[in-house]
Design brief:
272 residues, alpha+beta, Single alpha-helices involved in coiled-coils or other helix-helix interfaces, 3 domains, three-stranded antiparallel beta sheet, 21% helix
Length: 272
């Protein structure tokens, strides 16, 4: 099914009222609970289908259309899940070579002693780009069968397969240097979710300054350095427009001071 952006099925009518298009009947309705009902699972707070199409018949039509679109989409390629990537060995370090459809080449670094484990698993490794958090990870896709005629997969991170941890008690596997391509065990540690979020290196997707923790205050016309510490926002300086580099340096300085302490406290196990 062709990907549709949020704006493709939401609009503002002539009266200035927000409307939403039902994905089964394609009719436009005022976006409220009387027409769509409340569904907290969707980001807009309303069901995907209008109330008249929320019957089983409506869902059948929607699923049939989704399956037909999937089967007839000539641009849809079957996901390659098996067949280990090419690799190159440099003594204790091995690079797994990952080539994206665009031709862009990435090299994921692991300890050579872990190579045979990955060869035996025989997964095909890909690059997963999280644009919202401005970071990447190395992942594989494991098929779990076909649901309603559509193949389904679960995603596994390379760093998660190389370290024994317990996600049920909140443990996370974290890259110490924030580089998702560096999966040597010396760069991995088991950490709490709080510590994992704190160690994030990338800036937010909506960041305009180019520096993490630096944003533009329109009212004061200043770059503001601010961090979230113990659930509270704290400012560490305001800078003129031409002093953006200084603001970025200040943000890095205070992160080192406050976040490194949190990471140390939240680290559960250092992987050796």
């Amino acid at each position: 099914m062709a990907y549709r952006k949020y704006k493709d099925y939401h609009r503002i009518n002539k009266e200035g009222i927000e409307e939403k298009q039902c994905k089964v009947c394609f009719e436009w309705f005022v976006m409220d609970k009387n027409n769509f009902g409340i569904d907290n699972k969707n980001k807009d707070g309303f069901n995907v289908l209008c109330k008249s199409c929320q019957s089983n018949k409506g869902k059948e039509i929607y699923n049939d259309r989704k399956i037909n679109n999937y089967n007839t989409d000539q641009n849809k390629k079957k996901r390659k899940t098996k067949g280990f990537n090419d690799y190159e060995i440099f003594r204790n370090i091995t690079n797994i070579i990952i080539v994206r459809e665009s031709g862009e080449v990435f090299k994921a670094k692991i300890d050579t002693e872990d190579l045979q484990l990955l060869i035996d698993l025989n997964y095909r490794w890909h690059i997963d780009v999280n644009r919202r958090k401005d970071n990447i990870h190395v992942v594989c896709h494991e098929s779990i069968g076909v649901v309603n005629g559509i193949p389904k997969y679960i995603i596994k991170g390379l760093h998660q397969l190389l370290v024994k941890y317990n996600p049920e008690i909140g443990e996370k596997v974290d890259h110490k240097d924030g580089d998702g391509l560096n999966n040597c065990k010396s760069n991995l540690r088991i950490i709490s979710n709080k510590g994992n979020l704190t160690n994030r290196k990338g800036k937010n997707r909506n960041n305009k300054s180019g520096f993490r923790n630096v944003y533009w205050n329109t009212k004061d016309e200043r770059w503001v350095v601010a961090l979230q510490i113990e659930g509270k926002r704290k400012e560490f300086g305001r800078f003129k427009f031409e002093d953006l580099e200084k603001a970025g340096a200040r943000a890095e300085e205070v992160r080192q001071k406050y976040y490194n302490k949190v990471i140390k406290e939240e680290t559960l196990i250092e992987v050796i």
